[in-house]
């Protein structure tokens, strides 16, 4: 049975708090796990959330500020300590290669796992497989930063009434799906178009074309909202978004489920982020992220 869920390991921005660890997020996509932005303490948060090193197939780092990457050293060493049996691929801004190298070899350890380095230098497709395509888009931050988007290929949804009309049932349904035609009946005659699921991960950035491109038509958008709207000048100066800005971007992109995260330690009441997101006109499903929560991806439309 396929599982698609977003596991939140940490939600703090630059400074962790008593309730919020530094960033860290795992996307479970069927049998694969993609770890995003492992900040300090990610290893311990994985333990608390029931995430094992074996669950990680890919690591995606948006940029090399510490709250998004200092946990890399521990995570990479844990992957090797646990002798993860499959290769792990790491994506990160190419301009930060020296930082990745320092974190990868921060201390002595025995390498037992093949870690494939695939740095990102420009917008485009990073990986393409049977269940998703992974893309990157440049964002607007004081250091080079990329956001990531996962798109499932479109498929077909079987329509029971049409199957019954053509007398197709039982094992013949699967045969038709595999072969595309059965007894003169084509797959298109008994099914309808089903758009693939779309997920995007957008961290430290101002509003820019990259945000819009990543968010467009997403079933789930995970996006930073470091500041509240009254501090928009600070957000712009430091290369961040406010709750209202993030929500308006999601609204305009037709996002179904919005997950706000990466909160400044200056704010004590998370409910205010929800209030401002709703005031900005986003009326879809909304999650104000908290450490160790699991957020299922929306059901396919």
What does this structure look like?
The protein is of the alpha/beta class and 301 residues long. 26% of the residues lie in helices and 26% in strands. It has helices at 42-49, 66-69, 72-81, 97-104, 160-165, 171-179, 209-215, 232-238, 243-253, 271-279; strands at residues 4-10, 24-29, 32-36, 58-60, 88-91, 115-117, 124-128, 133-138, 146-151, 155-158, 181-182, 185-186, 191-194, 198-202, 220-224, 257-261, 285-288, 294-296. A seven-stranded mixed sheet has the order 6-5-4-3-2-1-18. The protein has a seven-stranded mixed sheet with strand order 7-8-9-14-15-16-17. The longest helix has 11 residues, at 243-253. The chain is globular and about 65 Å long. The mean pLDDT is 96.
Figure out the total of helices.
10
Radius of gyration, in Å, reads 21 Å
Number of strands: 18
Oligomer state equals single chain
Report the average pLDDT across residues: 96
Instruction: Report the order of strands and helices.
Output: EEEHEHHEHEEEEEHHEEEEHEHHEHEE
What sort of overall outline do the alpha carbons produce when their principal axes are compared? Answer: globular
Low-pLDDT ranges: none
Strands of the widest sheet, in order across it, are 6-5-4-3-2-1-18
N- to C-terminal separation? Answer: 19 Å
Percent helix, as a range, is 25-40%
Structural class assignment: alpha/beta
Instruction: State which percent range the strand residues make up.
Output: 25-35%
What does the main sheet amount to?
Answer: 7 strands, mixed
